[in-house]
Amino acid sequence: MSHNVFHFQQFSVNQDKTAMKISTDGVLFGACCNFENAENILDIGTGTGLLSLMAAQKSAAKITAVEIDNDAYLQAEENVKNSKFSDRIKIFHGDFLTFYKTCGEKYGYIISNPPFFENAFKSNDYKRNFARHTDSLPFEKMILGVKEIISENGFFSVIIPFDKSLDFVRLCALSKLHLCKKISVFSKSNVPPLRVILTFSKQILPMKYDEITIYEGNKTYSEKFKELTKDFYLKK
């Protein structure tokens, strides 16, 4: 089996063209989002198309995925075309800031695993830098766009580094997007959280909080992680 192809239960993801590969926290993010009642979903910065394919498996929604990088766009197109969900997923090649101003649609669920390294050392790999740094889509601009195209009862979820969460919540609050769920993600017990999954709404809803530890012991997935992702990873 090629290392460039990641096989899930209901779809496969080729990742030979993309700078950022499938990650454990990306799969966890898709598994944690509650897409079931959404009629339409927007995936900002889709990369390989993983989150869009996960959303299609978990819902009956129509899904639009936005990707600015040409190689990643072609990769996502390929992965969607080769899936059984191809009739429900549309890939838009371009930047989100142009997309939200012209799409003419409101979305019931918006997701993003966004670029997250700000003012950090950058490697010589341009594509990897572009995929990982907020230079390509600053949080402030993404949030302003989301505010314009999220439906009144819709949700907006992101996964970001834990140390960026307070700033992100503050920026969303300025745009009247209210935090309604926070999931702290720990790589293992007894260490600080590495990532956080945040969900926002235009409505003021009761706050929900949860924690997930990915590994227990020596790189063995925790029971909670296995339960959350059981419909996606191939059985071993």
Overview of this structure, please?
This protein is of the alpha/beta class and 236 residues long. It has one domain: 3-Layer(aba) Sandwich (Rossmann fold). It is built from 8 helices and 11 strands. It has helices at 24-32, 50-58, 70-81, 96-102, 126-132, 139-149, 165-174, 223-229, and strands spanning 5-7, 12-14, 40-44, 62-67, 89-93, 107-112, 150-161, 178-188, 195-201, 208-216, 220-221. The strands form 2 sheets. The protein has a 9-stranded mixed beta sheet. Helix 1 (24-32) runs parallel beside helix 2 (50-58) and helix 4 (96-102) packs parallel to helix 6 (139-149). The two termini are 15 Å apart.
Name the CATH superfamily assignment.
Answer: Vaccinia Virus protein VP39
Please report the distance between the alpha carbons of the first and last residues. 15 Å
Per DSSP, the total helix count is 8
Q: Which class in CATH terms?
A: Alpha Beta
The helix/strand order is: EEHEHEHEHEHHEHEEEEH
Report the radius of gyration as a whole number of Å.
17 Å
Give the CATH architecture: 3-Layer(aba) Sandwich
The total strand number stands at 11
Structural class: alpha/beta
Beta-strand portion reads 25-35%
**Average of pLDDT:** 90
The total domain count is 1
Sheet with the most strands, sense and barrel status: 9 strands, mixed
* Low-confidence segments: 117-123, 125-134
Brief account:
It contains eight helices and eleven strands. The chain has helices at 24-32, 50-58, 70-81, 96-102, 126-132, 139-149, 165-174, 223-229; strands at residues 5-7, 12-14, 40-44, 62-67, 89-93, 107-112, 150-161, 178-188, 195-201, 208-216, 220-221. Strands 5-4-3-6-7-9-8-10-11 form a nine-stranded mixed beta sheet.
